[in-house]
Amino acid sequence: MSRTEQIASGLTAVRERIAAACAAAGREPGDVHLVVVTKTYPSSDVAILAELGVSDVGENRHPEAERKRAELGADGGGLTWHFVGGLQTNKADAVARYADVVHSVDRLRLVRALGKGAAKADRVIDALVQVNLEGRDEASGGRAGADPAEVEQIAAAIEGEPGLRLRGTMAVAPLGEDAAKAFERLRECAAALAEVHPQATIVSAGMSGDLEAAIAAGATHVRIGRAVLGERPPLR
Ligand SMILES: *Cc1c(COP(=O)(O)O)cnc(C)c1O
Question: Entry's InterPro entries (predicted)?
Fold first, then answer.
C-alpha cells in the first residue's frame, strides 16, 4: 500500500468515526471539523493530506511547524495551520508569523505577546482559550491550560488585541480520568464564554483516543493525529 493509500484509509476511518459519533449525538457531521495533527510526520505527509482534500492541519512545536509550513510553499499549501501545543511567550512572535489559529492561549502574557506578534506581522490570528480540565486537587506544576475561572479574563484580553480574534475554547482530556466527564466541564466553560462572546463558537476537543466523547460533549473541532497517520515515534 502506498503512503497515499494508507493516509486515505486512515482519513476514511476517522471520517466514519466522526459521522457515527455525530449520529449518536444527534448532530450533523458537517458541524465537526477535522484538524489533522501532523507533528513528527514529514511534510510529504502534509502534502498528501492536502491532495486528499484535508483543509486543516495542526502542529504543536515551533520551529517544526514553521519549517513544514514553508516546505509546503509560500502559501502553506493553501492549508489552514493550527498551532495546538504549549507555547512559550518568547516564541509567540515567530508563531504569529505563520499560524492561522492558535489553540493554546492560556495566560495573559501570552495574549499580549501573540497580539504584538500578529500586529507586527500585519496579520489577524484566530485564538482559542485553552482550558485546564484537571480537578483542583491535581498538582499544578507545569500543566497547560487556564483554570476555568480565568477563562473570561483571558478572553477579554484577546478581544483587546487587534491582531487576535477570539473564537472559542480548547482542551485536552486529563490522563487517567473519564474523558466524557472532563469534556462536560469544557462544554460548560464554552457555553459560559459564548454567552458573553457570541463569536466564540469553536470547541476544540477530541484526539484519536477520545473523539467520540468530545463530539458527544459538543466539540466543533477534533484534533486527530495517529488515527489518520499511524503510530508516531515516541515524542522526545
Ligand atoms: C498530538 C496532539 C493531538 C493528536 O493526538 P493523537 O493522539 O495523535 O490523535 C491533539 N492535540 C494536541 C494538543 C496534541 O499535541
Answer: Ala_racemase_N, PLP-binding_barrel, PyrdxlP_homeostasis
Between the CA of 188 and the centroid of ligand 1 the distance, in Å, is: 22
Measured distance CA(38)–CA(8) in Å, rounded:
14
The whole-number pLDDT of residue 136 equals: 57
Give the strand pairing for 33-37 and 221-224: parallel
Interatomic CA distance for residues 54 and 85, integer angstroms: 20
Q: Whose CA is nearest to atom 11 of ligand 1?
A: 223
What are the pLDDT digits (tens) for 221-232? 999 999 999 998
Q: Return the amino acid letter for 231.
A: E
Lining ligand 1 with CB less than 6 A are 37, 39, 60, 84-85, 172, 207-209, 223-227
pTM of the model as a whole: 0.97
> 3-class SS at 129?
strand
- Tell which residue, 131, 120, 174, 121, has the closest CA to residue 155: 131
